[in-house]
Amino acid sequence: MATTSPSTSARPIAPNDALDLDALLGDEERMVRDTVRRYVGDRVLPEIGEWFDAGTLPREIAPELGKLGLLGMHLTGYDCAGASATAYGVACRELEFGDSGLRSLVSVQGSLAMFPIWKFGSEEQRQEWLPRMASGEAIGCFGLTEPDFGSDPGSMRTRAKRDGGDWILNGTKMWITNGGAAAVAVVWAQTDDGIRGFVVPTDTPGFSAVDIHRKLSLRASVTSELILEDVRLPESAVLPGVRGIRGPLSCLNEARYGIAWGAVGAGNACYQSALEYSKTRVQWGRPIAGFQLTQRKLVEMMLELQKAQLVAWRLGALKDAGALHPTQVSIGKLNNVRAALEIAREARTILGANGITTEYPVMRHANNLESVLTYEGTTEMHTLILGEALTGERALA
């Protein structure tokens, strides 16, 4: 029986990309990877611990991201970059390596605020808002979730009623990323003709945003409550291209796609931190990287990250081909965020007590990922979406 020996020309595996999955990326995606990775390394990582502690994200970050072409980068026209879906995913991965709040800013801006204007808006709305939002001059937010209605947005209480040629909006939205920093809000409301979307300048009388404090997660991110009290809007504020729950759900699907990539970045940050720490932390006269249990933990983290990256890459390939189904996005959101959170928790055990400080990224990512696990569809909701797809039986009420 013939035997073969390993090729002497084969390269050793890279601990941060054991299967060389970045070789699947094209030139555009690699350029985006390198650009965003450099920005995060130079601008974000040295400061993010302090930003998280202080519960803030500097306002100048948005224009900086705009100059890099990252805001609405997967959209075309109106000063948007027109990048591939995979390039957008890579950007989300690299941004969330820095912090989930940073990726949330980009996701909400591009997928939840710019996308509905780009997809469903009038030409006047697009011209007025999209170039300013692409540059970071104007921040947007997405008003869907309410205090009593998260996973069941179709039961929202926010109401828009006609008053002559105008609309009057009343209601409250909760847990709104970018809310307190936004110049424009895309607000979804019940009408006599079903759910409609409205483009609401935040300086409109009756509109107010109250930032939510005392958060233990996504602290480097603006999270707000939106209050609409007799907000009067002209007919031109309505998104003319959609009505019904399909509108906001299509936006959420765009955001979920970015999350599937972003979670890989957060998990990778935790894994890399634990790997490097294990090489320098000495116990019983040698680095803990040499202990069997530590190696098992590191190998399990690496395996889950590589699998999650393959899922994200496949979603990107399908999206670029125009063949991505919303249910497939649920696979990425469910699997990758769950995997990243488990990696964060395991990495913390390698760092021991040091892992609970913001000197290291692990506990910060773990806290953030608890929110990422919930927003844009909870684990339970994505499980039931996939369960229905598998069985044909609807388990939701």
Give the key terms.
397 residues, 11 helices, Butyryl-Coa Dehydrogenase, subunit A, domain 1, alpha+beta, 15% strand
Please outline the helices and strands.
Layout: H1 27-44, H2 48-54, H3 61-67, H4 85-98, H5 100-120, H6 123-135, E1 140-143, E2 159-163, E3 166-177, E4 184-191, E5 194-201, E6 207-211, E7 223-234, H7 246-280, E8 282-283, E9 286-287, H8 292-320, H9 326-351, H10 362-374, H11 379-391
Parallel strand pairs: 1-4
Antiparallel strand pairs: 2-3, 3-7, 4-5, 6-7, 8-9
Helix pairs in contact: 1-4, 4-5, 4-7, 4-8, 5-6, 5-7, 7-8, 7-9, 7-10, 8-9, 9-10, 9-11
Overall description:
The longest helix has 35 residues, at 246-280. The model has no long low-confidence stretch (mean pLDDT 95). The chain folds into 3 domains: 21-135, Acyl-CoA dehydrogenase/oxidase, N-terminal domain (Butyryl-Coa Dehydrogenase, subunit A, domain 1, Orthogonal Bundle), CATH 1.10.540.10; 140-237, Butyryl-CoA Dehydrogenase, subunit A, domain 2; 246-391, Butyryl-CoA Dehydrogenase, subunit A, domain 3 (Up-down Bundle), CATH 1.20.140. The relative contact order is 0.12. The protein is of the alpha+beta class and 397 residues long. The protein has 11 helices and 9 strands. The radius of gyration is 22 Å and the shape is globular.
